[in-house]
Amino acid sequence: MNLDLEMNLLLKFVEPQYSASTLNGELYFSRNKHFIELEEKQLEKGIGDKREGNWSKAFGEKSKMVIIVDGKEIPIRFKNAVLRQTYSNIKELPICCFVLLNTKKDFYVDEAENSLVLKPEIEESLTEQFAGRDLIFFNEPEEFLNMVDEACKKEGLGRLRGLVNYYDDKSEPHPMTEEEFDKNPVKALLYKRKFFEFQKEYRIILKAVHEHDRKLNIGDINDVAMNLGRVEQRKLPLKLRYTIEG
Q1: 72, 91, 92, 126: least CB-packed within 10 angstroms?
Q2: SS3 per-residue string spanning 86-123
Q3: What is the pLDDT of residues 51-65, one digit of tens each?
């Protein structure tokens, strides 16, 4: 029997001292500059991305570029080049980060145990990133996201939320057109370099510029989320079992 079961699982990894406050509905939003600076501060590469919120365009060797000297065009020869644009205010936008897993893409089915098992390479990647943190599992993710939307609405906060898409900025065009980027640069925060696809990130972004990181209280979420426990090295406290009725 082939089981075709697909759903998205929303997770958040938090420092243990903040688990209770998170379940009480207090979400912490770090400004985007924090994620940019991580790449410079962390010894391990791949944790932060200094190109957060950039728009990029790759040029191949057939592209042409010239430099003008005294009115004369002098061609510049190159094999590959990348044009990148960003807006300085993007650094000041607060972001709350989650992990989104897909049962069909990220798990395999163990029919003998009636369970879904996270692929070893994904479990290893997540535990390397979040060992020592608590794993908050959202058993009603849609209700949780609705609570976030309502809290933002009450406080008059514009927000953008969605799954981060990963692309190769050296060989692929940016998923956004340059015109789209100029009109809505905040959306660029939902695109990152393919190098970081192991993060499987889902983001909630506040559109207003902030001078400091901020907290957003959405109300008690114990009915829609739970603490599954501490993440250990190479071991994630996430076990999924299923039952088939009828």
Answers
A1: 72
A2: CCHHHHHCEEEEEEEEEHHHHEEEECCCCEEEECHHHH
A3: 555 555 554 545 454
